[in-house]
Amino acid sequence: MHPYAALTPEVVLDAVSTLGLRPDGRLLALSSYENRVYQIWLEEGAPVVGKFYRPGRWSAAQIEEEHAFAHELAEREIPVVAPSHQGTFGGFTFAVYPRRGGRTPEFDNPKVLEWIGRFMGRIHAVGSTRKFVHRESLTPKSFGHDPRAYLLGTSFIPADLLDAWKAITQQALQLVDACYERAGNVKTIRLHGDCHPGNILWTEDGPHFVDLDDARTGPAMQDLWMLLSGDRAAMSLQLRAVLDGYEQFMEFDRRELNLLEPLRTLRLIHYSAWIGRRWDDPAFPAAFPWFNTQRFWQDKILELREQIALMQEEPLTL
Predict the structure, then answer these.
(1) CA 149 vs CA 26, 27, 86, 304: distances in Å
(2) Where are the beta strands (DSSP E) in the chain?
(3) What is the spatial distance between Cα 190 and Cα 128, in angstroms, rounded to a whole number?
């Protein structure tokens, strides 16, 4: 039985009650696969959001560093949603957050990208002042070579595609390593870590950032490349807009342009292993039914071929 099977509505409500809050019994499960996240209504005041961490994923020290980083940013009036309460109950570590709404930003608007860039620069300026002690680092090994080794030790990849996937991932990671070597000894800092569009919400007051669950040490580019889309010309324009805001608070090392496509490549490999490692969680086969199919692995091989071609080109220019 998966550990989350024990996370019943009663356990969620009882856990929140141990923090001195008074749930009125209403719960709404929110979209989240890594953890279990709920909107929880209270007898008094606005609803809150409760996040119940996946058992065994992070240590207590790693979760504490996530929370400390969020509070450090919030104390500097950077719009990051930090937990208001945290605790343990019924074998689960959990945190309670104020509910913050918003919509997806208009990423095709240069002014919006500049605004996001200003706050990202402030996040990184704070992130660069000290190091994580317990949180993981994003490296070619942790996000590429290790996930590849894991997948090769499973039966997820169809037998008739195994040789092709093995060869394409080997070639891709050789190029990732070469691009990292070309970038040189770039600075690594504390990052948001998973700054995709769904983790940035927009209101009339501007952007705010949610979900520091993947906060880790790595190059600044990791928090910037997910803001970009389209062809090279479009991404170049978008990155210029982001950096117009970013560099008001934090210098950007142009050598990190060498890491844009390698980081995208690492995410592709890491993503496949992430699903595989969670396959015993009933939520994953239901949410990703295509993972265990021929088409999924064919598509991944094609995507990696495209990434190889991109990594063989000159880095993005500004």
Answers:
(1) 43, 40, 35, 16
(2) 23-30, 36-42, 48-52, 85-89, 92-98, 189-191, 200-203, 206-209, 216-218
(3) 6
- 281 in catalytic set: no
Q: How far apart are CA 52 and CA 60, in angstroms?
A: 13
Give Cα 120 to chain centroid, integer Å: 14
Question: Which of 24, 160, 177, 211 is labelled catalytic?
Answer: 211
d(CA 54, CA 260): 30
Burial of 154 (0-12, 13-18, 19+ CB in 10 A): exposed
Q: How far apart are CA 312 and CA 254, in angstroms?
A: 18
- Token pair 């209270």 is found at 42
Report strand pairing: 200-203 vs 85-89.
unpaired
> How high is the mean pLDDT in each 10-residue block of the chain (318 residues)?
94 97 96 94 96 96 97 95 96 96 91 96 98 98 98 97 98 98 97 92 89 96 96 95 98 98 98 97 94 96 98 92
- Please confirm, yes or no, whether 299 is among the known catalytic residues: no
Task: Single out the catalytic residue among 146, 194, 223, 280.
Answer: 194
- pLDDT at residue number 205: 86
C-alpha to C-alpha distance for 79 and 206, rounded to whole angstroms: 9
Which helix (H) or strand (E) element contains residue 272?
helix 260-277
